[in-house]
Amino acid sequence: MPKQCLRIVAGKYLAELAGQNKQIVALEADLKESTQSVNFERNHPDRYIECGIAEQNMVGVAAGLALAGKIPVVHSFACFISMRACEQVRTTVCYPNLNVKFLVTHAGISTGTAGTTHHAIEDIAIMRAIPNMTVIAPGDAKEVCQALDAAMNIDGPVYIRLGAGEAEDIYTDKNKFKVGYATQILDGTDLTIITTGMMMAEGFKVSKMLAHEGIKAGLLQMASIKPIDETAIIKAVKKTKLIITVEEHSALGGLGGAVCEIAAGLGAKVIRIGINDHFCDIGSAACLLEKEGLTAENIFKIIKRNYRA
User: In terms of pTM, does the model score above 0.85?
Assistant: First the structure.
């Protein structure tokens, strides 16, 4: 399947949206080539603010712009917004419920060789715990554009989480992202794989691998992590024997935790696949994904060990 770099897709599409809506303003913290906010700067230099390496201050500036009626879109790496500027996100933006969008890139372990300081394996847990925050982790190009459309229609803070690498196109014309709802990519009766972000492609591959074994696996893409689709989770628990969550994030507090909070009272068997409770090594993103077991082959092995017909 074709692959596209989601931060490039997002950067171009945001610039397009800003051409339609003059209230959109972009803020950057000296990472414009990495986050691809450079597209916004080229097209709308009068609405582009370079804040320098001062993420906490940048969030404060965004709050002021929101109070003035603008729609500020804050760019940076996921690790810096969720941790370095966490207090400002919580208290300055979310507490007064301001209309600020956080378009973050290099989530999970996609920064690779930049090391632990730049890995973002806790950000979903942090952001979904903050009141008023909407958390979205799209997994392919179509979902990114639809997520940006949805974010602009929310009057409040939104955290949109993107990886650094390329993602396979999984969405078809029949798939549609909607805040608060899961997207049914594949239907199945034996087990359900629930993914978020770029793990959607791995979940798709695993479902096809399982089909060759005679196992019918459903695939739910849970790009909307908060609010989360409780109805879809309950339906999956009742329909299938096993639930597998897959995320490029700590297995604690992220998608798996959110699903378990709902499934716990239903007697469901849920296996959370993510990064175990440790800091990751330094290496290429591909090597780290392999080491952390976040590949289709490893996910397939885990399911085979736990599935009973």
Answer: yes
